[in-house]
C-alpha cells in the first residue's frame, strides 16, 4: 500500500515518514522546496506544490492513503493571503486530488491556529463552538 505525505520535509512530516518507513510502508513524499530532510529515509520523493493540482494528481497516483501535513503558519495579518492560499485553497486541492485519484483515506493534520483561542483563560479544544468556522466552511 502506497501512502503519501504532504509537508514531508517539515518536523512532523519527516517524523511521520520515519514512522511509516519503520512499519515497512511504501512512502511517497510530496516536497515543495527542501527535500534534504527526507533524503535517505527510503521514501520516494516527488516535487510538487499543494497549490498546483496537477502535481497532486501525479503524487497521489496509486496511493491508498494521504497524510496532509503541508501548511504555512504566520501570526502576521499581512501574510493572511499566503496562509489562506496554502491552508485553505491548498487543502481544497488536496481533497479534490484525493477524490479524483481514488485515494481511500485522507488524514488531515492542522495546527492550533485553526481553533479559536478566545477567551484566553479557557483550554482550547476541537469543540465546534470553539473552531474558526470560516476556515472550515471555505473547504
| CATH evolutionary superfamily | NAD(P)-binding Rossmann-like Domain
Distance between the termini: 27 Å
Residue stretches low in confidence (pLDDT < 50, at least 5 long) are: 130-139
Strand order of the largest sheet: 3-2-1-4-5
Multimerization status: single chain
Query: Count the strands?
Result: 5
Helix count, per DSSP? 4
Per CATH, which architecture?
3-Layer(aba) Sandwich
* The CATH topology: Rossmann fold
Give the helix/strand class: alpha/beta
> What's the shape?
globular
Instruction: State which percent range the strand residues make up.
Output: 15-25%
Concise description?
With 139 residues, the protein is of the alpha/beta class.
Tell me what you see in this structure:
The protein has 139 residues and is of the alpha/beta class. The protein has one domain: NAD(P)-binding Rossmann-like Domain (Rossmann fold), CATH 3.40.50.720. 34% of the residues lie in helices and 17% in strands. It has helices at 11-22, 53-60, 80-101, 133-137; strands spanning 2-6, 26-31, 44-47, 65-68, 105-108. It has a 5-stranded parallel β-sheet with strand order 3-2-1-4-5, with helices on both faces. Helix 2 packs across helix 3. The longest helix has 22 residues, at 80-101. It is globular, with a radius of gyration of 16 Å. The two termini are 27 Å apart. Mean pLDDT is 86; it is low at 130-139.
Amino acid at each position: 500500500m502506497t501512502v503519501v505525505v504532504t509537508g514531508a520535509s517539515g518536523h512532523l512530516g519527516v517524523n511521520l515518514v520515519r514512522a511509516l518507513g519503520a512499519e515497512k510502508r511504501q512512502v511517497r513524499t510530496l516536497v515543495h522546496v527542501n527535500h534534504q530532510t527526507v533524503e535517505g529515509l527510503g521514501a520516494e520523493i516527488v516535487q510538487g506544490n499543494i497549490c498546483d493540482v496537477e502535481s497532486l494528481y501525479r503524487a497521489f497516483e496509486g496511493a491508498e492513503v494521504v497524510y496532509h501535513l503541508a501548511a504555512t503558519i504566520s501570526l502576521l495579518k499581512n501574510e493572511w493571503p499566503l496562509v489562506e492560499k496554502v491552508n485553505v485553497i491548498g487543502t481544497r486541492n488536496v481533497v479534490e486530488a484525493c477524490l479524483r485519484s481514488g485515494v481511500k483515506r485522507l488524514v488531515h493534520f492542522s495546527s492550533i491556529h485553526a481553533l479559536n483561542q478566545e477567551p484566553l483563560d479557557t483550554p482550547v479544544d476541537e469543540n465546534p463552538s470553539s473552531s474558526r468556522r470560516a476556515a472550515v466552511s471555505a473547504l
